[in-house]
Amino acid sequence: MSLSDIIDDLIARRPSANFLDVTYDDAAVPVADSVHKSTGITASYVITTDSGRIIVNTGTGGEAVHHKVLFDAVSPGPTAYIITTQSHTDHVGGVGHFREPGSRYVAQANNLECQRHDELLVGLRPRFGVPWFAAARAATQQLAERYPQQPVVRRSSERPDLGPLQDRPRPDLTFDDRLALRLGGLDVELLATPGGETRDSCIVWLPDRRVCLISNLLGPLFPHFPNFNTLRGDRYRDPALYLTSLQRLRALHPEVLLTGRGDPLSGGPMLDAVLGRLYDAVEFVYTATLRGINEGKDLPQLMREIVLPDALRVGQAYGRVTWAVRAIWESHVGWFRQQSTTELYPDDSRTGYQDLVALAGGDAVVARARERLDKGDPVVAIQLAEAVLTTEPDSVAARAVMLAAHEALLADPAARGNFWLRGWLTHQIRLWSDG
Questions:
Q1: What per-residue confidence (pLDDT) applies to 154?
Q2: Residue 237: which of 106, 336, 332 has the closest Cα?
Q3: Crossing angle of helices 268-294 and 3-13, rounded to 10°
């Protein structure tokens, strides 16, 4: 089997759109020399040495007690270092559960700024996350029932949307670009990779063993195309920094990769090949989008035209090429596309829709929406049905079109296989079915 075939097989069998249907381990799983994993929303790892242990990512506050029970069975400590590879709540939330006298929490220097940014959207995140995170919440609730006596963590800052178990930790030790640690004869290097999901992203490198813990640096579904803007709401992520960070990882020539989801990946030549294909795929989309912008092509045209060639095929169960094109456009050009003066004003197109529907008649617009749907254009059908619903929110016919159009979109295997798209379409189908 060629390396290309191996990569194709890897993409097909790695965790995909159902990756948040978490099944928690009954015991810590050995994944590399002196490294064990505990599966979670994002996996937590323990590195054991003769002089103590290192915890890499702690899970959410609700998961950390479970991780600790499993890790204590492997090595009760002491816990010398707690390292988080980024500041999302499923990495930092359990830091307080692992802290003990002498422990040092280590993170990249942007950690607190990234945590503060999350706090800025404290009201939005619970609302925007509804279509996707019900399964994860259900799984952590099962853990709460398994460990009814979980300790409450004294958090360094309060957020009303986080439960009493969720830590908001302050690092004891930070670094800008690189930090070398040594414990029990084991050398550990932390390398900043700001092109990951957050600007405090880093990787944990064990140079003597050529093992690299990357967690979600390249996205939670590796090797799938990354998200440069996530539907749950966040800052744009920089494709150029992503490529630079990927280069830094590839230059290490790791023999084992430990990711945030899924089994370990091993084999230097295979890892170099898959990292190379992912790099080339992102660079292709980035370059093609910038070239199209400079040639005067508009955003919808670029979203339709830019597709990966077969030789650069990677999974799209998390990010999608079309979304990357949009994120690159807007992060480089901005929100003003120079297509309409209304872009410069607090325009609400629903008012114009109402006038147009009043002129044409709601029945006629719904009929046209149904025609569009029957011709295989569910997106335009949704636009027309939404126009009717601005004036007739209880229109049975328009709501039926909305339901059928979303079902048609979800019938596409590519949509069913993408975590974000499947979650959104399923959520919409549920809403229109309930109506």
A1: 53
A2: 332
A3: 80
Predicted local distance difference test score (pLDDT) of residue 156: 47
pLDDT of residue 94 exceeding 90: yes
- Do residue 267 and residue 352 come from a single domain? no
Instruction: Answer yes or no: are the C-beta atoms of 264 and 31 closer than 8 Å.
Output: yes
**Residues 363 and 269 reside in one and the same domain:** no
Question: What 3-state class would DSSP assign to 417?
Answer: coil
Q: Where are the beta strands (DSSP E) in 59-210?
A: 79-83, 104-108, 173-175, 178-183, 186-192, 202-206
* Domain end call among 254, 275, 296: 275
Rounded distance, CA 261 to CA 218, Å? 11
The amino acid sitting at 43 is A
Instruction: Encode pLDDT of 302-315 as tens digits.
Output: 999 999 999 999 99
Phi, psi of 334 (to 5 degrees): 100, -175
Domain boundary among 227, 247, 275: 275
Of 335, 306, 309, 334, the C-alpha closest to 320 is 306
For residues 349-375, average pLDDT: 93
Structural domain boundaries, residue 48: 3-275
Question: Is 75 a member of any domain?
Answer: yes
Instruction: State the pLDDT at residue 62.
Output: 87
Q: What is the pLDDT of residue 107?
A: 98
**How many CB atoms neighbour CB 30 within 10 A?**
12
159 & 260 share domain: yes
pTM flag (> 0.90): yes
Q: Is 220 exposed, middle or buried (0-12, 13-18, 19+ CB in 10 A)?
A: buried
86, 114 in Cβ contact below 8 A?
yes
Mean pLDDT confidence for 230-243: 94
Same domain, 7 and 88: yes
In order of 286, 297, 325, 329, the CA distances from 291 in angstroms are 9, 9, 11, 11
Question: Which pLDDT value is given to residue 150?
Answer: 62
CATH number for the domain spanning 256: value is 3.60.15.30
Q: Please state the domain count of the chain.
A: 2
- Give the pLDDT score at 157: 47
C-alpha span between 100 and 77 (Å, rounded): 10
